[in-house]
């Protein structure tokens, strides 16, 4: 007799147990890294993109370990009070873990870390909810895609999608064409989903992924130093969330 394909009930106690074990494993891993490396940096991300965060992790794979997400787990692993802290001074870092932040463990000298992250910035496409960083007006004539140099016109089969997103186009010699200039977005205003999609389709990048260093813990002294001007402005963090299922759990 073939096995039934109907949904089966799963005991919630089993799910909770597995989740608890997973959290404990992550805490153990974090604490092991706190014992291994000299420095632990608290950081946040502007215009979060998992692909860029993975690039950072790959470039530092031999000289650092990075954790991102699950702030409550990270804070508990470090210890949020003097009595609970895993190592001297870590509670001063743990109490600053709020929102979408991460931990970066390394032995690399602080100035080198600061300079590296200040230099690592990756342009990317804006999302709905971001504020436009500049005014973009599409000129009269063929609608162009800026993914290549020189830009190329959209193919005829994409004209219905352009019209659906708000462009008033017509077909001229098989090319989607604007009969008048079209203001796609205005600087300082929040982007709609249609505007964000049009910016992506036309290849116009408007945000920049970057890592902002907030504070640094030194294992040799137990001191925590705040990084002046190292955080990410609120408007760069707005409307940015996970773009990959990996962020449902703490990534490392």
TrEMBL record:
Give UniProt keywords alphabetically: Cytoplasm, Nucleus, Ribosome biogenesis
**One Pfam family of this protein, by short name?**
Ribosomal_L10
Q: Cellular location of this protein?
A: Cytoplasm; Nucleus, Nucleolus
Region (Disordered) residue ranges read 230-252
Q: Which GO terms describe its molecular function?
A: RNA binding
- TM ranges: none
Under SUPFAM superfamilies, the record lists: Ribosomal protein L10-like
Q: From what superkingdom does this record's organism come?
A: Eukaryota
Return the Acidic residues bias intervals: 241-252
Similarity field? Belongs to the universal ribosomal protein uL10 family.
Description of how the protein assembles with itself and partners: Associates with the pre-60S ribosomal particle.
Protein name per its UniProtKB record: Ribosome assembly factor mrt4
Q: Which organism is it from?
A: Psilocybe cyanescens
């Amino acid at each position: 007799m073939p096995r039934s394909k109907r949904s089966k009930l799963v005991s919630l106690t089993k799910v909770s147990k597995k989740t608890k074990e997973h959290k404990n494993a992550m805490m153990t891993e974090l604490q092991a890294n706190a014992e291994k490396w000299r420095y632990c940096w608290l950081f946040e991300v502007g215009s979060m993109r998992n692909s860029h965060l993975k690039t950072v992790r790959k470039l530092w794979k031999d000289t650092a370990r990075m954790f991102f997400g699950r702030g409550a787990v990270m804070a508990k692993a470090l210890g949020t009070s003097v009595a609970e802290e895993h190592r001297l001074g870590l509670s001063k870092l743990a109490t600053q873990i709020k929102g979408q932040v991460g931990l970066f463990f390394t032995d690399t000298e602080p100035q080198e870390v600061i300079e590296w992250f200040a230099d690592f910035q990756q342009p990317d496409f804006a999302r709905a909810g971001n504020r436009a960083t500049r005014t973009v007006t599409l000129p009269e004539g063929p609608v162009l895609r800026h993914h290549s140099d020189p830009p190329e016109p959209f193919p005829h089969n994409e004209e219905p999608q352009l019209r659906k997103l708000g462009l008033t186009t017509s077909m001229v010699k098989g090319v989607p064409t604007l009969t008048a200039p079209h203001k796609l977005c205005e600087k300082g205003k929040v982007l709609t989903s249609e505007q964000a999609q049009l910016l992506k389709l036309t290849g116009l990048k408007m945000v920049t992924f970057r890592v902002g260093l907030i504070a640094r813990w030194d294992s040799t002294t137990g001191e925590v130093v705040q990084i002046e001007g190292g955080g990410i402005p609120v408007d760069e963090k707005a409307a940015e969330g996970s773009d990959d299922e990996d962020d449902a759990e703490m990534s490392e």
